[in-house]
Amino acid sequence: MLILAIDTSWKHGGLALARGDAHSFELLETTPLEGGTFSAQLVPQAARLLAKHSLTKADLDGFAAASGPGSFTGLRVGLSAIKALAEVLQKPIATVSVLEALAISCGLPGRVRALLDAGRGELYVGEYEANVETLHATSLREALITREEFRATLSPGDSVATPEQSISDLLKGSGVRLMTLPRPGAELIARIGIQKLLAGQTVSPEALDANYIRRSDAEIFSLPKIRG
User: Does residue 110 sit in the same domain as residue 160?
Assistant: First the structure.
């Protein structure tokens, strides 16, 4: 199975061209996408990746996309591009939560909490039951809560994964099993995405949507006006 994976959930993004099956994974190449110019780079960079490996878009068997949480603008641009390509080519899409990818990347079986800084004193929290061997994590909860609320829920020995140094500092002395890891990128999205595609865990282009968790500022600040 040959796929194109995309991650535009953060200020720096990336594309990954990969092939694999239930037992193997081959990363053909990754390429970075500079923040602020995702819309101008995505299609040309994807075309360049395919041409470099003597492939065309018709050779693709599917797509994988980081669905969030993260940058509202970045996610909209990335998912819109994947939606258009998948619709034209009639290929399936697998979505991967960044929190899900983080939980899997920690390499620990069992229950894991994945954390991302959401700003404003809040955290994106994902609780998963992870199966490292199959690159699968069952979502138990994804939520937006304050740092203080999260710390109050912890018990000694809990497994927590984050790429954020500020969160690691917050949890020092809490007795948790803390792992500070690199932020998941397009390569990991591709690895997980292939397994989801093989398992039939896909979404149609028209159903593809971002996993923001938090509403946008436009939605939040327009609510009083709408209600009034």
Answer: yes
